[in-house]
Specification:
A: four-stranded antiparallel sheet
């Protein structure tokens, strides 16, 4: 049974860097091709942030590409998300998700990150 | 990239069938058999209901079905039940290559 668990600071200062980790258990990152990060601002819809291949190759949402970086650590079986120069608009629940076909079949519980001073 | 267009709300009575549309472009919905659908209850994690246009993951009720015609995909819920009341989102792979979600649809069971 695959499980994903996001972790990281719940509060980030404006202009700072948001850093989250997604620990994967019950499944090897290298068994699946792609892994994604998705976010959801309070009361709003889902937004795809980006995806990473287990080799480290990544693709990003064009609206975030200048500020975002996603990586994998195969030795720790986890993914990482870094988003810099954050503003209040980046306040959201951040999810990591496993790809299945062109869908996302397993999701973490989500990590609420608030950008505020 | 622009979000895929979904109706803000759809409602139906128990036992009825409803259909949610998801409209994109030839660079996303129309260009690939890559549409997926998610159900999200308030405060809960999104759940994959349909992937690759019409495939149901193991454990998902066969009351949920997906289809696509041109640049518009659809999710049909038949035999509507109270537990189906939730927000629904579509998603599509794009030519960039990236993914894009829909605007979301609130389903109300009357």
């Amino acid at each position: 049974q695959v499980q994903l668990q996001e972790s990281g600071p719940g509060l980030v200062s404006p202009s700072g860097t948001l850093s989250l980790t997604c620990a994967v258990s019950g499944y090897s990152i290298t068994e699946n091709n792609w892994w994604s990060w998705v976010r959801q601002p309070p009361g709003k819809g889902l937004e795809w942030i980006g995806e990473v291949f287990h080799s480290g190759s990544a693709h990003y949402n064009p609206s975030l590409v200048s500020r975002v970086s996603i990586s994998v650590d195969r030795s720790k079986n986890h993914l990482s998300l870094n988003l810099n120069s954050v503003t209040a608009a980046d306040t959201a629940v951040y999810y990591c998700a496993k790809h299945w076909g062109y869908g996302f079949d397993s999701w973490g519980q989500g990590s609420l990150v608030t950008v505020s001073s | 990239q622009s979000a895929l267009t979904q109706p803000a709300s759809v409602s139906g009575s128990p036992g009825q069938s409803i259909t949610i549309s998801c409209t994109g472009t030839s660079s996303d919905v129309g260009g690939y058999n890559s549409v997926s659908w998610y159900q999200q209850h308030p405060g809960k994690v999104p759940k994959l209901m349909i992937y690759d246009v019409s495939n149901r993951p193991s454990g998902v009720s066969n009351r949920f079905s997906g289809s696509k015609s041109g640049n518009t995909a659809s999710l049909t819920i038949s035999g509507l039940q109270a537990e189906d009341e939730a927000d629904y989102y579509c998603s599509s792979y794009t030519s960039s290559p990236t993914y894009v979600f829909g605007t979301g649809t609130k389903v109300t069971v009357l």
